[in-house]
Amino acid sequence: MSTPVSTPSVPDGLRFAFGTLTVLPVTVTRWDRDAARAGMLCAPVAGLVVGLLSAALGLLPLLLGAGPLLAAVATTAVSAVLTRGLHLDGLADTADGLGSGKPAEDALRIMKQSDIGPFGVLALVFVLLAQVAALAEAYGQSWARGALAAVVAATTARLALTLAARTGVPPARPEGLGAAVAGTVPTRYAALVAGLVVCAAGGVSTLLGPYDAVLGTVLAVVLACAAAEALLRHCTRRFGGVTGDVFGALAETAATAALVVLSFG
Which parts of the chain are beta strand (E)? Predict the structure, then answer.
């Protein structure tokens, strides 16, 4: 008989999400499976706040007369700072682990090392270049499109974490953040959150007017989640499960994919 799922606590979930996924001053009062489940369900809310703050500060260069490229750099930098750079660090470590071509145990050991290898450096360079270029294109179209792209990308990045924490995705290690959140979210809950994020993104994009803007925003969320899912499956096969580094890589992959799709207008 399956164990019934307890109702997640929204306050505990928000504290868990903001306390583990941002640098905002939030105290995590619970660190158990129920709190982790609620936290992963609330992860897109943390992403929404990160996106709003990144967009707000990214718009400052535009208000001061600078061009869209500087606004894009500012937005990307603020997002990295608000997440302690942990997602970027996870991306680099995951790239090193995957690029090593070694068995799972050795690859996981490489990922735990403090230094960054050539695969990690390349991943960081190309991902950050893609994010800045895509945001610059969006800001170049209009400040509203740039701000929307920043918010949608940050929210979708955390939605990818919700989906990756679903039941059936095992942890690669018995300890760490990956083990704490892996498999905590029932698939139906993850699907519900995904549906809410897609509907919200499409609804907000109606403020930009044309139908193709709505379709493009919805498509960006869907394709970003698909890209993160492809990476998740590959990492699960290679490492035997997920780690905190893999979660970071999934977030950056989803954010980059969403920004690239949105840059096409």
Answer: none
CA atoms within 13 A on the CB side of 53: 16
Residue among 108, 147, 145 at smallest CA distance from 242: 108
Number of H helices, E strands in the chain: 12, 0
- Name the more confident of 211 and 244: 244
Bridge partners, 262 (sequence order): none
Higher pLDDT, 41 or 180: 41
| Spatial separation of the C-alpha atoms in residues 203 and 219, rounded to whole Å | 13
183 has pLDDT over 70: yes
Distance (Å) of CA 166 to CA 5, 57, 131, 156: 13, 33, 27, 16
* Owner of token pair 């905190």: 244
Q: What value, to the nearest 5°, has the Cα angle with vertex 118 and ends 72 and 250? A: 55
Please give the distance of CA 7 from its chain centroid, rounded to a whole number. Answer: 24
Q: What is the pLDDT of residues 134-178, one digit of tens each?
A: 999 999 998 999 999 999 999 999 999 999 999 999 998 877 777
Is the Cβ–Cβ distance between 70 and 61 less than 8 Å? Answer: yes
**Strand, helix or coil for residue 202:** helix
Looking at residue 182, the DSSP 8-state letter turns out to be T
pLDDT of residue 12: 80
Give residue 8's region: left, alpha or beta (phi > 0; psi -120 to 50): beta
- Counting Cα atoms < 13 Å in the Cβ hemisphere of 15 gives 14
Contacts of 155 (CB under 8 A, 6+ apart): 44, 47, 48, 51, 197, 201
Q: What is the pTM of this model?
A: 0.91
Q: Is the pLDDT of residue 229 over 70?
A: yes
Cα gap 20→177, rounded to integer Å: 9
